Amino acid sequence: MPKHVAITMDGSRRWAKKNGLTISEGQEAGCRRALEMTMDFFSVGINTVSLFGFSTENWRRPEDEVNYLMNMYETFFKREIPHAPRYATTQFQAFVYRNRKTSPRHLRCDARGRRSYKELRRKHLIIAIDYSGRFDILRACKSLAEKAKNGLIRVEDIDEKLMENELTTKCSEFPNPDLLIRTSGEQRISNFFLWQSAYTELYFPNVLWPEFGKAEYLEALTWYQKRQRRFGGSV
C-alpha cells in the first residue's frame, strides 16, 4: 500500500460540460469528490494525500472562473476542513500551501488548517493552491543559499535530506509520493511535485475527476501493487 498518494484533480470542467452543468457546478462537484476520496484513502491505511487544486499557471484562466475558485476554496477551508473527521475513521492534520505573494489575501495564511489539527499527527492532507513545482525547488534553493551565507549550514553539508526539509511536503513523514494519479486521461505532471516525483509511479485513468469513485481508486491501488519499484536498481 502506498504511504503517500498525490492527485491532480483534472476534468471537472469537462465533466460539467458533458452533463450540461456550469463550470462552477463542476468545480463544486470536484471539491466534494476531493474530500470524499481523501477520507477513502485514509481509511485503507494511506498516510498522506496531496491534492493539486490550483497551479500557478491557472491564473491564466478567465478572471471570473479564477475568482469563483478562490472563493470556493476559502469556503472549503472554513466549512469543510474543520469538520472533515466526520467523514473519516481516523483523525488527520491539514496543510494548505499557498504562494503568499500571488494568492488573494484571504488565502495567504495557512494557520487555519494547522490550528484545527496541530495536535494530530496520524494522517496528513496537503492541498496545493497556487503551486508550482519549479518555484518550490527555487524557493528551497534560495533558502539553503541564505542559510549557507549566514553560516547556519556549510555548502558541503547540503544534501537531498536538507533539500527535502525546505520543500512544501516537509510537513509529512512521507514527503515523496509513491503514487501520483492524474485523472481525465492527460499524461503529464504539469509542474506538480517535480522534485518529489523522481521515482513516483504515475497513473493516468481516463475518467474525469468528479467520476473518480471507489471502484476507480481501488483499481488505481491494485495497479500500484502490481508495479515493481526499483528506484534505479534491478530486481
Give a written overview of the molecule.
Keywords: Transferase. Its cofactor is Mg(2+). It holds the Pfam family Prenyltransf. The protein has 235 residues and is an alpha/beta fold. It has a single domain (4-132, 175-222), classed as Undecaprenyl pyrophosphate synthetase. 37% of the residues lie in helices and 14% in strands. It contains seven helices and six strands, in the order βααβαβαβααββα. It has a six-stranded parallel β-sheet with strand order 3-4-2-1-5-6, sandwiched between helices. Helix 1 packs across helix 2 and helix 2 (23-43) runs parallel beside helix 3. The protein is globular. The two termini are 19 Å apart. 33% of the residues are buried. Mean pLDDT is 84; it is low at 105-121.
Please name the fourth-level CATH homologous superfamily: Decaprenyl diphosphate synthase-like
- Radius of gyration over all CA atoms, rounded: 18 Å
Largest sheet: 6 strands, parallel
Please state the second-level CATH architecture.
3-Layer(aba) Sandwich
Cross-sheet strand order for the largest sheet: 3-4-2-1-5-6
Which structural class is indicated by helix and strand composition? alpha/beta
